[in-house]
Design brief:
Shape: globular
GO molecular function, one term: manganese ion binding
CATH superfamily of the largest domain: Phosphoenolpyruvate Carboxykinase, domain 1
Strand content: 15-25%
Structural class: alpha/beta
Distance between the termini: 35 Å
CATH class of the largest domain: Alpha Beta
Signal peptide: 1-22
Cofactor: Mn(2+)
Domain Phosphoenolpyruvate carboxykinase GTP-utilising N-terminal: 43-272
Largest sheet: 9 strands, mixed
Helix content: 10-25%
Number of helices: 11
InterPro entries: PEP_carboxykin_GTP_CS, PEP_carboxykinase_C, PEP_carboxykinase_GTP, PEP_carboxykinase_GTP_C, PEP_carboxykinase_GTP_N, PEP_carboxykinase_N
Low-confidence stretches: 4-30, 464-468, 470-477
CATH architecture of the largest domain: 3-Layer(aba) Sandwich
């Protein structure tokens, strides 16, 4: 019987075997034809190519021409549909088994369990996160990644979380076999050649590896032309080595690794090490009738109204709200002791149902062009629809997110409850003038809110038990996204 250390070594050697004994694969041969990469990036990409064995490698530049080609390819494959009613907008329908973040299959890998979650009582599963041992992770990796991109193109995405060049910004490189991810990352992050130039200067970066888990040729047909492998989904974070590996899902929350995976989970560890904060918070600027402007950060769990608050249209005369970000805030005290924050994202990945001209007119204006819609309903006049919007005009029919005819009063919803829009932040009519400030905006107040269970208070009087070494505190807003306490 092997002990844990022996098992770890055996599995590690097996991974090396799988990733190194494939020098004749098409993917490795194509590596020589890609543009010159900074040495650290090239080393990461080479390792991913050797493990995943793609047919081709494409380094993403982020140009408009490249984006147009990516979208045209997705349309040709049947993964997205053009929406002529709007300017450069698209509709994607996923496999019904791939529609949301899968928290039960989202894990943190550390040497010691206590570095990820409080130690639960024997036989009890922790409610504060999912820890996986290093040996179990290596076994899971061997079962998933070797050869997973066969027949597909590996896209290499250099991206920036935050304005390129800012002292608060962090960089990443994601390899993926999903062109849908490339198109979406182009909206949600600063992506392409400018980032590659920063990496050439020696900037550190988070290594992100993603695969839909459906190598070619396919062994079974796709649903909605959407490649995914729901039975093998695993989203893994290795904070000690700044790595993220995601397998089996194409849904944005699981595949756009710059978002929750990097900007909250890995970033919270980087922030802990470096002395700053990575928080699940919106950032807005509010100006009084007297012209006094303050910046506020606010923490709410997912689908609680962060986007609506960040884009609020004040009812009080003379007040003005401007949006810096609707989901994530990176905050750090400056040399003068002032807390400053940036929105590390470049776009909005918002929940569609409930968004309307009544609840969020600025969001509706933002998503009128250059937007990727996912799992919303469609109208017969080539538009989109979801619950919360006004009923379509007479004669306009609806198709639900499954692609089936839908009528008002149907038992099932037209749009999936977690259907999304992915739109550039710069298009927001009330985007704050300082939203890309390299030094960040000064935070004057922080608000906490959420879905309050009956009888539960937000604030407690600290007692000695709170500071017991085996006790921990965690705000529910960050529960799915942080792992250190």
């Amino acid at each position: 019987m092997l002990n844990n250390r022996q098992l770890f070594v055996c599995l590690f050697l097996r991974v090396l075997c799988c990733t190194n004994n494939c020098s004749t694969s098409a993917g490795v041969r194509s590596l020589a034809s890609i543009p010159s990469l900074p040495s650290a990036v090239a080393e990461f990409v080479k390792g991913a190519v050797q493990e995943c064995k793609p047919a081709n490698v494409h380094v993403v530049t982020g140009t408009l021409e490249e984006t147009a080609n990516i979208l045209a390819g997705l349309e040709k494959e049947g993964m997205i549909k053009k929406l002529p009613k709007y300017e450069n907008c698209w509709l994607a329908r996923t496999d019904p088994k791939d529609v949301a973040r899968v928290e039960s299959k989202t894990v943190i890998v550390t040497k010691n369990q206590r570095d990820t979650i409080p130690l639960p009582a024997e036989g009890v599963k922790s409610q504060l996160g999912n820890w996986m041992s290093e040996s179990d992770w290596l076994k899971a990796r061997v079962e998933r990644f070797p050869g997973c991109m066969a027949g597909r193109t590996m896209y290499v995405i250099p991206f920036s979380m935050g304005p390129v060049g800012s002292a608060l910004t962090k960089y990443g490189v994601q390899v993926t076999d999903s062109p849908y991810v490339v198109a979406s990352m182009g909206i949600m992050t600063r992506m392409g050649t400018p980032v590659l130039k920063k990496l050439a200067e020696g900037e550190e970066f988070v290594r992100c590896q993603h695969s839909v888990g459906r190598p070619l040729p396919l062994r079974a047909p796709l649903v909605n032309s959407w490649p995914c492998n729901p039975d093998k989904v695993l989203i893994t974070h290795l904070p000690d080595t700044r790595q993220i590996l995601s397998f089996g899902s194409g849904y944005g929350g699981n595949s756009l690794l710059g978002k929750k995976c990097f900007a909250l989970r890995i970033a919270s560890r980087i922030a802990k090490d470096e002395g700053w904060l990575a928080e699940h918070m919106l950032i807005l600027g509010i100006t009084s009738p007297q012209g006094v402007k303050r910046y506020v950060a606010a923490a709410f769990p997912s689908a609680c109204g962060k986007t609506n608050l960040a884009m609020m249209k004040p009812a009080l005369p003379g007040w003005k709200v401007e949006c810096v970000g609707d989901d994530i805030a990176w905050m750090k005290f400056d040399s003068q002791g002032k807390l400053r924050a940036i929105n590390p994202e470049n776009g909005f990945f918002g929940v569609a149902p409930g968004t309307s001209d009544k609840t969020n007119p600025y969001a509706m204006a933002t998503i009128a062009k250059n937007t990727m819609f996912t799992n919303v309903g469609a109208t017969s006049d080539e538009g989109v629809w979801w619950e919360g919007l006004d009923p379509p005009k007479t004669g306009i029919t609806l198709t639900d997110w499954h692609g089936k005819t839908w009528k008002q009063g149907s038992v099932t919803p037209c749009a999936h409850p977690n259907s999304r829009f992915c739109a550039p932040a710069a298009q927001c009519p009330i985007i704050d003038p300082q939203w890309e400030s390299e030094e960040g905006v000064p935070i004057d107040a922080i608000i906490f809110g959420g879905r309050r269970p009956e009888g539960w208070c937000y604030f407690y009087l600290y007692t000695s038990c709170v500071f017991h070494p085996k006790w921990n505190r965690q705000y529910l807003v960050n529960l799915p996204f942080s792992f250190h306490f």
